[in-house]
Here is the input.
Amino acid sequence: MTFHDHFSEGSAAYREARPTYPRQLFEWLAAASPATTRAWDCACGNGQATVPLSEFFDEVVGTDASEKQLAEAERGPGVVYRRATAEASGLDSATVDLVTCAQAAHWFDHAAFHREVRRVLCPGGLLAVWTYGVHSVSPEVDPIVGRYYRQIVGPFWPPERTHVDEHYANLPFPFSRLTTPEFEMSHSWDLGQLVAYLDTWSATREFKKSNGRDPLEIIAGELASAWVEPSDLRTVRWPLTVLAGYCGESAGS
Here is the structure.
């Protein structure tokens, strides 16, 4: 499989501007896992899920195909980073209690990834993948960002982004799904932080490459008016969709 690298460019900005996941998610994953000896965080990027997992697991192996993302990854006790694809982790068979993938499973060769998951998981091990779509801020801000997402940079999203828009409803997941709690990311951001986040979108970068200008300039004035005071902090929310299931329990079984 060819690795489609959408995130090496601007990896430092990605580390600084992307939202982080709630602690409650990692607490639940640890409680649902058959053991907490070792976790594999696949397509770990800059370690946004890898390091929080290390609070609950003795060892967490974070893998990513992007050297630049790994270079920006946060370090922590018990955390090991390796360059590897989702479909070929390099891990020994039956050595992992939990496999996670945060906001990246839609990029994979799903059949190959699931074969790798079955190989590396211990009997009864857990696979959990999650995603988040467009955030919400306020009735004044949300329509502007929605237009930016769908109309301005919309044509520049890779086709795999459809899975995110569908909240992973049609993402291949050949395991019987667990009932998961509702999780949400939430941050207090000023306008500059929101714009920095929008600038990390792969569609924003592709627009820049194709048009030679910054698409955020198109909505800058409108967004500033809706925000009123750029330094004001507003709550930004992203509901998480989590798919989780145990190895050996196939969908439909």
In short: The chain has a mean pLDDT of 92. The chain has ten helices and seven strands. Residues 176 and 221 are 47 Å apart (CA to CA).
